[in-house]
Specification:
Length: about 290
């Protein structure tokens, strides 16, 4: 959990969930009513804050819902526990929907496999609770989804320990290798599906997902999610009727494309996605 005060202007409403409601709201389609950020596993608050600030600058009247990702969410937390932990986020979405006479204006920004896991939980639990698909939304898939093979899974799980002293990194590395070995050698042969493959399927499930358009932001040098894994997923999405745009960055790291060129291209992509979505939402609900 992030330390208190990690996200100025945001209120912690759950174990890994934060919420920002601006003092001035805008009913115009020109801005999202709600931006949902599902961040990558164990993302540092300093890095997350840059995206929060970016959205507050771009859409100052938008509410922002932050859902953080932790390794236990994917490794061992039960469905019941995950549902309880994400319940405050579901309440925010239901509240936004109740405030709107027409379609709620939602932008869902998903980072990495950790954020994808939280996002698909959000969509699934919303549908379970309401009997309806998660509201029509625009989606950004940032550095995801990958395949979750052994080496890339290790890098993702080990990332939170990179800055720790060696006496913490070594036992953590041993524990991560042990967990992955147990999964690949014991769980997989029993027919239990890789959770990463599950989230890849759920992101492209038309019975679960209702989108105006999605944009994949990815890189040719991402050490955790290979560009081909992203493009394979996008191709599958197209085949199922999703409207897809690909934005491949050169030389950027994992969940770090915003650093290229001072973020100008990155935030332009966000603005253009929302501009397209506003037209689609207006036509859908006309």
């Amino acid at each position: 959990m992030a330390p208190p005060g990690s996200f100025p202007g945001m209120t912690q409403i759950g174990p890994a969930i934060y919420y920002h409601a601006p003092s001035h709201l805008n009913k115009s389609l020109s801005a999202p009513q709600l931006v949902v950020l599902c961040t990558w596993m164990a993302a540092h608050p300093t890095h997350i804050t840059k995206y929060i600030t970016g959205y507050q600058t771009l859409f100052p009247t938008a509410k922002i819902l932050l859902i953080r990702s932790e390794a236990p969410d994917i490794i061992y937390r039960s469905t019941k526990t995950l549902r309880l932990r994400i319940q405050p986020a579901l309440e925010v979405v239901r509240s936004v929907c109740a405030d709107e006479a027409s379609a709620p204006r939602i932008l869902l920004h998903v980072f990495s496999n950790g954020g994808s896991h939280q996002a698909t939980n959000l969509l699934q639990f919303y549908q379970d609770d309401t009997g309806h698909k998660f509201p029509l939304h625009a989606k950004i898939l940032d550095s995801c989804p990958g395949r979750g093979n052994f080496s890339r899974s290790y890098l993702a799980l080990a990332a939170p320990f990179e800055r720790q002293p060696i006496y913490l990194r070594l036992p953590a590395s041993f524990a991560i290798v042990l967990i992955l070995c147990l999964f690949w050698l014991l769980v997989t042969p029993l027919g239990v599906q890789n959770p990463i493959e599950t989230l890849r399927q759920r992101l492209n499930d038309k019975s679960l997902v209702s989108e105006t358009k999605r944009v994949y932001m990815y890189s040719d040098t991402d050490p955790m999610v290979h560009w081909q894994e992203v493009e394979d997923h996008a191709e599958d999405a197209r085949s199922k009727g999703f409207l897809v745009e690909m934005e491949k960055f050169q030389g950027s790291g994992h969940a770090a494309h915003v650093r290229i060129g001072g973020g100008e291209r990155y935030w332009r992509i966000v603005k253009e996605l929302w501009a397209y979505s506003t037209q689609n939402i207006a036509e859908t609900w006309a």
